[in-house]
């Protein structure tokens, strides 16, 4: 069996703990703005960074009052597991943040590319194995299956342009990339339609996973693209 080569510290002396040295190196690279993500060509830069802040105060029974800038909101858990059910759960907020994030990206990107967009709807369905948080099994405690449905109403009919738009939006969306790198089983489904009826994204999502949406008929997209960034395919 070969002997691992000792790693060297910045002073040139062998490190007694290679894993610690590796972690320190990764931390230093992160602080310097260097990106180790192979899906992106360029490194991040502190010169272009912004700092986000969020403050939380536990108010008992698993509830948290969160303050971000001048906004406050409550995150809670259902009463059946010890919460007070006075607000969405942290993971529900996360799902909602993903919906919001891609909507922001679509609005900004459509303006930059000159794409006419008359409506945007999003809907998330995600599965989480509750045994992870509950401590009864050593499983991934966050989402392991995630479907993000995006409905975009537009008069544009150029499929090359629309597929390129979807790929570009996925590639620059912070939330989508977090989910993708976290191995959540993310599936991003783009449905381009002439118009978006009420709860169109919800109807398409529920139909895909075998759930019903009473009183709602799903739209008929003229183009559907799945996972446009990289291995995107027309459905």
Please supply descriptive tags for the structure shown above.
disordered N terminus, 6 helices, 235 residues, 22% strand, alpha+beta, three-stranded antiparallel beta sheet
Could you explain how this protein is built, in words?
With 235 residues, the protein is of the alpha+beta class. It is built from 6 helices and 8 strands, in the order αβββαβαβααβαββ. The strands form 2 sheets. Strands 4-5-6-7-8 form a 5-stranded mixed beta sheet, with helices on both faces. A 3-stranded antiparallel beta sheet has the order 1-2-3, with no helix packed on it. Helix 2 packs across helix 4 (159-172). The chain is globular, with a radius of gyration of 22 Å. The model is unreliable at 1-16 (pLDDT under 50).
Main sheet specs: 5 strands, mixed
Inertia-based shape: globular
Strand order within the widest beta sheet: 4-5-6-7-8
**Structural class determined from secondary elements:** alpha+beta
Radius of gyration: 22 Å
- Report mean pLDDT, rounded to a whole number: 87
How far the N terminus sits from the C terminus, by CA atoms, comes to 51 Å
Name the beta content range.
Answer: 15-25%
Total helical segments: 6
- The beta-strand count equals 8
Low-confidence parts? 1-16
Helical coverage, percent range: 25-40%
Order of helices and strands: HEEEHEHEHHEHEE
């Amino acid at each position: 069996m070969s002997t691992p080569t000792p790693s060297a510290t910045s002073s040139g002396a062998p490190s007694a703990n290679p894993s610690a040295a590796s972690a320190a190196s990764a931390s230093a690279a992160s602080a310097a703005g260097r990106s180790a993500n192979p899906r992106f060509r360029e490194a991040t830069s502190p010169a272009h960074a912004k700092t986000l802040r969020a403050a939380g105060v536990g108010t008992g029974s698993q509830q948290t009052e969160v303050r971000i800038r001048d906004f406050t909101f409550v995150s809670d858990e259902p009463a059946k597991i010890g919460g007070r059910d006075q607000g969405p759960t942290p993971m529900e907020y996360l799902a909602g943040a993903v919906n919001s994030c891609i909507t922001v990206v679509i609005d900004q990107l459509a303006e930059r590319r000159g794409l006419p967009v008359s409506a945007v709807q999003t809907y998330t369905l995600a599965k989480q194995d509750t045994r992870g948080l509950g401590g009864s099994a050593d499983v991934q405690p966050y989402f392991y299956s995630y479907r993000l449905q995006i409905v975009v109403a537009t008069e544009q009919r150029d499929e090359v342009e629309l597929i390129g738009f979807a790929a570009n939006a996925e590639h620059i969306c912070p939330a989508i990339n977090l989910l993708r790198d976290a191995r959540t089983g993310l599936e991003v489904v783009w449905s381009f339609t002439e118009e978006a009826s009420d709860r169109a994204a919800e109807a398409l999502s529920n139909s895909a996973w075998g759930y019903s949406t009473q009183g709602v008929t799903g739209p008929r997209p003229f183009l559907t693209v799945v996972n446009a960034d990289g291995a995107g395919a027309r459905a």
